[in-house]
Amino acid sequence: MKKITDFNETIVALATALGSGSIAIIRLSGKDAITIVNSVFKGKDLVAVPANTIHFGRISDGKNEYDQVLVSVFHAPHSYTGENYVEVSCHANPFIVDDIMDVFIKMGAVSSKPGEFTLRAFLNGKMDLSQAEAVSAIIRAKSRMGIKNSLEQLNGKLAEQIIQIRQTLIDITGLIEIDLDFSEEDLEVVERKDLVSRINETIADLNRLHSSFNYAKLLDGGIRLAIIGEPNVGKSTLLNQILGENRAITSHIPGTTRDAIHENIVLNGILFKIIDTAGLRQTANEIEYEGIKRTKSHISTSDIILMVIDSSKTQGKKAIDLVEETVNAISGKVLLVANKADVGNPHNVRKAYGHLNKPLVEMSALTGKGLKDLERQITSLLAGAHEQFSDSLIVTSKRQKEVMVRTVNHLTDARQTLEQGGGYEFVSVDLRQALDVLGEITGETATEDILNNIFSQFCIGK
User: Hey, how many other C-beta atoms are within 10 angstroms of the C-beta on 433?
Assistant: First the structure.
């Protein structure tokens, strides 16, 4: 990425996705953005039109006419980037887009680097660094919950909390430095225990924030849900019912599924990565054995396990032992599914496995009866984490989490110094380091390397 001070150029990029479509948006930002577009725009004089207006016309270089367009004009500093800014809406034919981009570049614009529009917005004070990261997070979000969390960050909620925490640290540092000024007079402005208490509160606030990252990561990456059970209990039929399509081959022949099938689905706004696995049983078949081996691997890495049980069969000791042994070895959350309820007796399943103290849902994967109850039970397994964080701000950036952890480490050092009777001058150093690190979240103390690393991960045009 170019130096962050090298913003004399006017940049141009396609803001919408590549490929054919109805409309494409080309954006320009920089002091010459309006004049560059105006030089090839056949319509009103864009230099003379009011800000925040849209105008119809044609793009032509005098030799060729490229398209009919709508041009949106924004004047600095009241634009996304804080600079003169233009958006050109044209037909989304790749040839048209390329030709118009080439015309703008010939007239003096340069192709933007990844994230350069948002970087300019940050440097021009249109948003802080946490909001800039939220722009990228919204685009990458894979669930409605992920979008909600990123929108809250874009609206400045994380920045508000960080500013409050930094102000608390500034207040504490101020008290300590006042105390240092009066150290020769043996006056104690504030008691150590009060300082420790305020630092502990700040540490708790930061720990609450950064602990939400694991939940955000889970939502963003998807909840891994494995469907397991003995052969021919209806696992693949259940997968097809959840997906609403015949994705997996089903058969009365045990061992039909030899390898795991992976599919994604969104339930209640949360992305689930569903894995239909090979049936669990003892087998001499080399291929089936490998499938079972992989099933056990998927069990160990899944967040939720659906243990499917055939309620149409008698639950003998061998079947009970297999389910019990498997469930007891699972570290994730387990939901028992008494399948084939349309022809079986789910009550016998409840009786056989009640001692496992796991939630159980009765359903028929064949007819779909009980599917809604199954979906409710699945999402309820996330209730603990969901209730803890659903009304709270969720940190979605690994960088932000790491900054908070580093800040907590400095505060812990400051607390330890206070508790051990150390000098206030050492406490002050730790607190100032904590302030400096925490400022990286909103960008107040972010270095050029940090900015380049963040914005290089953006897509071009954003």
Answer: 17
Dig out the tokens for 361 from the structure. 């849902």
The whole model's pTM is what?
0.71
Give the integer Cα–Cα distance in Å for 14 and 87.
Answer: 10
Q: Are the C-beta atoms of 336 and 309 separated by less than 8 Å?
A: yes
Cβ(27)–Cβ(87) under 8 Å?
yes
User: In Å, how far are 122, 175, 399 from 438, measured between CA atoms?
Assistant: 17, 19, 11
| Tens digit of each residue's pLDDT (9 = 90 or more) over 280-303 | 655 444 544 455 556 666 777 778
Cα separation, 310 vs 332, whole angstroms: 22
- 461: which 2 tokens? 């045009």
User: How many CB atoms lie under 10 A from the CB of residue 300?
Assistant: 11
Q: Given the structure tokens 């659906």, which residue do they identify?
A: 306
pLDDT at 258 (0 to 100): 42
Contact 36, 109 (CB under 8 A): yes
The token pair that represents 333 in the structure block:
């959350």
Per residue in 52-73, pLDDT (tens digit) is 999 999 999 989 999 999 999 9
Residue 420 DSSP code: T
Are 399 and 132 spatial neighbours (Cβ–Cβ below 8 Å)? no
Distance from C-alpha of 56 to C-alpha of 89, rounded to nearest angstrom: 10
Region 138-217+397-442: CATH code: 1.20.120.430
pLDDT in tens, 210-269: 888 877 776 667 788 888 888 888 888 889 888 886 554 444 444 444 445 778 888 777
- Class assignment of domain 11-126? alpha beta
Alpha helix locations (H) across 62-191?
94-106, 116-123, 129-140, 144-154, 157-181
Sign for the pseudo-dihedral over CA of 392, 395, 401, 407: negative
Sorted by where each begins, the domain ranges of the chain are 11-126, 138-217+397-442, 222-388
